[in-house]
Amino acid sequence: MPSTKRQILQDEAAELATEIEALRSVEPATDEEAAEVAARLDEKTTRAHEVSKLAARERELDAQVEALRQVVKSDSEPRSQVEDRTEPTEAKIFPAFSGQGFRSTKEAEIAGRALRALARGDVRELRAMDTGSAGSGGELVIPELFNGFIDVLGYSSVGVQVASLFPTSSNSLTIPKIGEIEASFFDEAGTITDDDATTDDVEIALHKIGRLIKISNELAEDVAAGVALAQTVANRLGLAIAKKIDSVWLQGDAGKSITGLVDAIAAGNTVEQGTSNDATDLADMVGLIDYRAGNTAWVVSSAGWSHILKASVVTQSTTVGGRVLPVVMGAPVYHCLGLPAGTLALYGDFSAATAVAYKANGLQIAASTDAAFATDQVVYRGTQRVGISNHDASFVAKLVVPAE
To answer: Does domain 256-357+391-400 have CATH number 3.30.70?
Structure first.
């Protein structure tokens, strides 16, 4: 892995290259301006030679250090205390979410440097920084940037938090849907009967979700503002994709042949809001869902949350994924903006009703300075592949506003 000093030199080299190219393209109008440009060009060229020498020296030192590590590892394999201490960073989607985006200022700075390199098209620097990217080619997503985006996405999307999650390396995934199933007694050396086992397969197609984010060139190029750049991109991209996931999860998408969970809930699992501010309608919902539901939760709109508060059924709170959630009738309550008008609340085991499939290496971030040339901005394009299936709505009940 390149040293910190080498990475700093790479940053400076990229900046010098940009400045020298800009100076060479200047057409002076006067002799004084020509002399000034020539002096600045000489200054930048001299520094470029110095940076090149220093970078070459750092590359040589990095190579020597790596060679020494290999010698130590090959000659002293049992000695764990002298093994290579560089820990590989494995980019994992959907970890425990904090909502903070980046775990430290250092991670945000590294992510910001990667975003600047993307804007410049500096693939070499990206490859030097990469230790296990989530993307590929010219759209490398280093682990620090990937994890920052995923943390915001997972914290913001209720669907991601309550559904069953399945990783895949392809653009589709088949998962088992368990129907009425019961184990059987069998005698020693006997055959286990499968008469009671009823399973179905659910195929989930993954689709690209994307967002364009415009950033001023001043922010993109400001080395000191690297943290702000990384946080801005991660937050906007994570929030945008989280909102889309929740909207499709609850309301569906006809173009992608996805039925929303709200529409999938049968009339028998639907309760109308009562006229009095008590918890009768909420209790009715609890009694309607499939008896096998275990990991239950509430998903409510703003109006639904108001109804719960008026019913005075919030008796305690619980901590889920680092956040404190109110508890109603033994289940945590999630406030979600994706519920359609007229639907106040859902209750049930969403992990049994919904599956979210994701491509673990599906995140890609690219940048272009041409798309927003007129406004002097950089356009970042972020995409992620996600699939959603609401395959068993019997595990969920819904509370709706009475029809007029």
So the answer is: no
